[in-house]
Amino acid sequence: MKRKYNRIVLTLLSLVFTLACFFGCTRGGSDNGGDRVVKPDTPTSILRDRDFSQGFNLMGMHAGTDGRNVYRVFDYNKTADAAPAWEMAQWEGKHNLVEAQEKIEGDRYTYQSGGKKFVYDSKNAVLTLAIDATQEYDAPRKTSSEGWVHILIEQNFQTVYSVEDVEKINVSLDLCLTKFDKKMTDEEFDPNLHNAQLLWYITLTNKPPQDNPADEDGYPVNGVDGDYIWFGVPIVDYTRYGEFMDAGLSYDIGTKHWICSVDSAEYLDRPVTVGVRNSFEYDIVPMFKKTLEEVQAKGGMRNCKYENLYVTYMNFGWEVPGIFDVSADIYDIGIEAVTK
């Protein structure tokens, strides 16, 4: 296996602001849930509210305690056109977005508390996710057991698809990295503890038949219902800035599930860098069997059968275990199923 790009593992579970960024992003790259299980006849979007017009449910700051509780609804001064399909996670750090003031400038809605910030441009349907970690840490992290700052958007899919029933699942993204500043000295920086990453994860979840008796070792013959793999589509990583990120397999101690990430050269024409707008579309289905095989070779997803895997959930956003000032504009994000 190639060298892992992940120096620091995901828990639920990145170079300064350039002149190009000042004038806006230049074009780069190519142009281009719930329990209900269905087999639609035509290609369809798995994601709801791709333009973010319905707002966000904001969750708590601590993944293990209140990280799934909703404490505020961001509805753009009550202009959101429906109840939110998206959740926003904001784990760790010193500040809570529940206290953010709503700043309105024309069609732009800005929410900021300390170093955590997001902006929604309703006219152009552009979402900005940003973390200034200088406001979220008193000092650099000293051990791997210390938490780190996140701002993620996530969605449980209302319609879930069996991997056996799809010809393709295309993931697509159009974004611009607008800020990626290291705010630590070289003496403070430890690549094993400090990083800034923009990441995208999709879960492959085991949904076995109801008739799932135990094997001779007392383990379900079709695996545990709800067991899952984090399938990663990495975007940018400070420790690999300006490079493609290698495929990686690692065990997430926080969620007790395996993470399997794709080599970013599979879908990016060029590495994501500040000031250059990148877009891609990539079919992830061909990677699913290999992903399951690699995880099972490590002892994960025991007894799970490929035909019982379903695509159920995603999260996307910043994880910043180091002291960095980062921001990205998201013009579009999509997950679409093409059925057999």
Q: What does the model show?
A:
Mean pLDDT is 91; it is low at 1-23 and 29-34. 4% of the residues lie in helices and 40% in strands. It has one domain: Jelly Rolls. The protein is mostly beta strands and 340 residues long. It is built from 2 helices and 20 strands. Strands 2, 4, 5, 6, 11, 13, 14, 15, 16, 17 and 19 form an 11-stranded mixed β-sheet that branches. Strands 1, 3, 7, 8, 9, 10, 12, 18 and 20 form a 9-stranded mixed β-sheet that branches. The protein starts with 18 loop residues before the first helix and ends with a strand.
Overall geometry: globular
**What is the distance, rounded to the nearest whole angstrom, between the alpha carbons of the first and last residues?**
32 Å
CATH level 3 topology: Jelly Rolls
* Mean model confidence by pLDDT: 91
Q: Percentage of helical residues?
A: under 10%
Biggest sheet architecture: 11 strands, mixed
Radius of gyration, in angstroms, nearest whole number: 20 Å
> What percent of residues are in strands?
35-45%
Structural class: mainly beta
CATH homology superfamily name: Glycoside hydrolase family 11/12, catalytic domain
Spans where pLDDT lies below 50 across 5 or more residues: 1-23, 29-34
Summed up, the helix count is 2
CATH architecture classification = Sandwich
Q: Give me the strand/helix succession.
A: HEEEEEEEEEEEEEEEEEEHEE
How many E strands? 20
Count structural domains.
Answer: 1
What would CATH call the class?
Answer: Mainly Beta
